[in-house]
Automatic annotation (TrEMBL):
GO cellular component: membrane
Domain of life: Bacteria
Primary location recorded for the protein, binned into one broad class: membrane
Domain Cation efflux protein transmembrane as annotated: residue spans: 30-240
Molecular-function GO terms, alphabetical: monoatomic cation transmembrane transporter activity
Ranges that cross the membrane: 28-50, 97-117, 137-155, 182-205, 211-232
Keywords: Membrane, Transmembrane, Transmembrane helix, Transport
Record's protein name: Cation diffusion facilitator family transporter
Localization per record: Membrane
Length: 357
């Protein structure tokens, strides 16, 4: 894959199959979740009809929504793996962000809204008396066992990815560039919480004879699903808009550019996540005035190659030679970051979170 700059063409070393292993793990995690959710959805639906429980009906809708979501995630993983072409020169990596965003909409539209509807209906007396709660208990316990299997796998995959990125699990979930694995983890976590709420609502309904508890459980399930939908929407919104690469990677790239013997100063540095483990790097550099045009071109090629070798996630590099004292460029950089890159302390190399391109 070629990386072009104002100083010539700078090829980045081939990425090989670095991301394929991670994609395979994500796909298997999604498939496991899909199979579990399909079986659970059927069992919950039957139990909801038998018992007349609002919470069980909400949980059935929840599992149906989750099953649809896994199909959307598989579609996103498939489409995002397509190679770059003339129409999409940076590849199709953001396909998975689009489909993951649809998952957030589905969770809210199919899951949360239905749970709210069932809850309000139970609270206003629109549902009949609960019957044969034993069926519900059995289904909920079996569902918990199946969901736990899927949840443990999703947690293990997310934990592995967090360790690879040298992040805490919570930080990885908040700032991941691979939403499908996080979607499954959050879905399964919400499913387990929802099952506990449904179990509590049905149990309290049986003990007190009041359907209010069943309705409250259904409403709380809707709240949980809404929170998950909002969290997923936020993650994918940032990635679709254009999120800066991991700040640690940006600092490392900034330091590497400054250390190049041909470079006098790093004038501007912009990064953007273009897909899972794919980062676009654009930098303006003030090169030494003694360099010939041929030396400048070779320097651009070498720097881009070194960045690609040191950081496999760097997918494209664009280097532009500029004078550091150009007033228009300095004003532009100052407006983006609040400071000029060559004026600020070394521990701030590479830009703050505002350095998204």
């Amino acid at each position: 894959m070629d990386t072009r700059s104002e100083g010539g063409t700078a090829p980045v070393p081939p990425r090989g199959e670095e991301a394929s292993g991670g994609d395979g793990e994500s796909r298997l995690t999604v498939i496991v979740a899909l199979l579990a959710n399909l079986g659970i959805a059927v069992a919950k639906a039957v139990a909801a009809v038998i018992t007349g429980s609002a919470a069980m009906a909400a949980e059935a809708a929840h599992s149906v929504a989750d099953s649809c979501n896994e199909v959307l995630l598989l579609q996103g993983l498939r489409l995002s793996a397509r190679p770059a072409d003339r129409r999409h020169p940076f590849g199709y990596g953001k396909e998975r962000y689009f489909w993951s965003l649809l998952v957030a909409v589905t969770i809210f539209g199919m899951g949360a809204l239905f749970a709210f509807l069932q809850g309000f209906e139970a609270l206003t007396g629109g549902r009949g008396e609960q019957e044969d709660p034993l069926v519900a208990y059995v289904v909920l316990l079996v569902a918990m066992a199946l969901e736990t299997v899927s949840w443990v796998r999703a947690l293990r995959d997310a934990g592995r990815a967090a360790r690879e990125h040298r992040q805490r699990l919570l930080d990885y979930v908040r700032h991941t560039d691979d939403p499908p694995s996080v979607v499954v983890l959050l879905e399964d976590s919400a499913a387990l919480v929802g099952l506990l709420l449904a179990l509590g609502g049905i149990g309290l309904h049986q003990l007190t004879g009041s359907a209010v508890w069943d309705g409250i459980a259904s409403l709380l399930i809707g709240v949980v699903l809404t929170l998950v939908a909002l969290a997923l929407g936020r993650i994918n919104r940032n990635l679709l808009i254009g999120s800066q690469a991991d700040p640690r990677l940006v600092r490392a790239i900034g330091g590497r550019l400054r250390d190049a013997p041909e470079v006098e100063a790093l004038v501007d540095l912009v990064t953007m996540t273009t897909g899972h483990d794919k980062v676009l790097v654009c930098a303006r550099l003030d090169f030494r005035d003694t360099l010939s045009s041929a030396e400048l071109e070779r320097a651009c090629v070498r720097i881009a190659e070194e960045l690609g070798r040191e950081h496999p996630e760097v997918d494209e590099v664009f280097l532009e030679p500029v004078p550091r004292d150009d007033p228009a460029i300095r004003a532009h950089v100052l407006a983006r970051y609040g400071w000029n890159l060559d004026d600020r302390p070394a521990d701030r190399d590479g830009g703050g979170r505002g350095a998204a391109g």
